[in-house]
């Protein structure tokens, strides 16, 4: 009985029931994508698309939150020496935005020029937008270059991914259009940008230059992670194709410009020699299309002034820009004025500023008109008296403290006249201390006072109708921030370390001058070349080079 009761109380195991067989599953689909935008709408793709989006968002957060460890910000002691920047309320910008970006739009500037609206919400891309552009450009250009199958086989059933190349190509074109419409950091010439962005590598190289200008706005002396990523991608793409074609020359020039403001000269010298080698293999700039030849000539001549590049002139610059002859250039300056008339600047600056510009034009061109650079070292008594009178008049302010355009012009003229009177270089003149109670409580060098004044003007638009004057100020400041290397030598031979303040000044002046040359436009290439030539002759005489200087454009 006990055994029967035990059997009756035990639980019985559940009966297994077989489910009906499953139907045939969906067809397998292989998906190749590097970005969420490459997926098309559809329920069957939702699961895969979600996982890719998770990965994409994680990558974007990593990029946005990763502050570059190599970026050297200006110290608080250095910022304290400059004119205080007005604070911004929380309704306009958060404290994080102010710490990350110190754009010129938030600084007090001269009220004499109101020709262009300085809306803070301009076409200038934000750092996050530029990071996204770089990330997408790298991925799309990599996808386009990795596609080995020719387009003629796109409809063949044996080709595993029929729609990938066309999708990447269309998205790359859309990205180019967005970049052209929003780019204002380096070049705003739409026709020029469309030509540059027609090739994936030249497009990415131009983006890398924009990254350098974004780092400048962020107050970074060294390259950020985004800039280094863009440069690395450009260098990697160029390693596979070193043909002396237009795209390679243009890409190398952009790499050279991206290193123009760096105090580490090794990369600049590599790109400079590479560019000269490409032009030499091409047969000289005369074998290059005129627009590209003009672009290369203007920017290399600018670098010659800024960094003291030296070499024989085998190819005259006039043969490069002669197709622009006859175009009137409204951007006059102490370096260029066809008839010595500065009436067009009356509505753009104060009367005191206009008087200084007029006096500096006469002071600079009086010895140059004698067509002998050595005469500058043996100035006439009248010229010496004029320099002395102008120097003393420039030593004191005569205008409102917020007219930073006037202050920049005054300080640049003070550096030039000091070099003329004392027979020294621009670098030595700019490094002299200047006591001005209205500017700083103590003494500071003329170079850093000039930089502080320029930082409080609209450097993005290069002073609008006063772009020629802006270029003159930046060329003078850039040449003064680099120590002259002497006759017959090239920049970059000095291995002495520079301070953070000097490195920051070099980067600012160099990139601002390059931007000004591009903003003036290639339709006025002859006028720009005349201004650059005058600046080179003045610098040669002050540095004691003993003769005209021009960079080596390689043989024809």
Strand order within the widest sheet?
Answer: 1-2
Cα radius of gyration in angstroms = 30 Å
- Briefly note the structural class of the backbone: mainly alpha
Question: How would you state the average pLDDT, rounded?
Answer: 72
Q: What is the string of SSEs from the N terminus onward?
A: HHHHHHHHHHHHHHHHHEEHHHH
The number of helices is: 21
Report the sheet-strand fraction: under 5%
* Major pleated sheet: 2 strands, antiparallel
**Fraction of residues in H or I helices:** 40-55%
Total number of beta strands? 2
The backbone outline, from C-alpha atoms, is elongated
Distance between the termini: 118 Å
List low-confidence stretches. 63-122, 147-167, 311-325, 371-377, 485-493, 547-556
Pfam families: Fungal_trans_2 (PF11951)
InterPro entries: Fun_TF (IPR021858)
Biased composition (Polar residues): 78-93
Biased composition (Basic residues): 10-19
Structure, explained:
The protein has 21 helices and two strands. It is an all-alpha fold. Among the domains are: 157 residues, no CATH class; 201 residues. The chain has a two-stranded antiparallel ribbon. The chain is elongated.
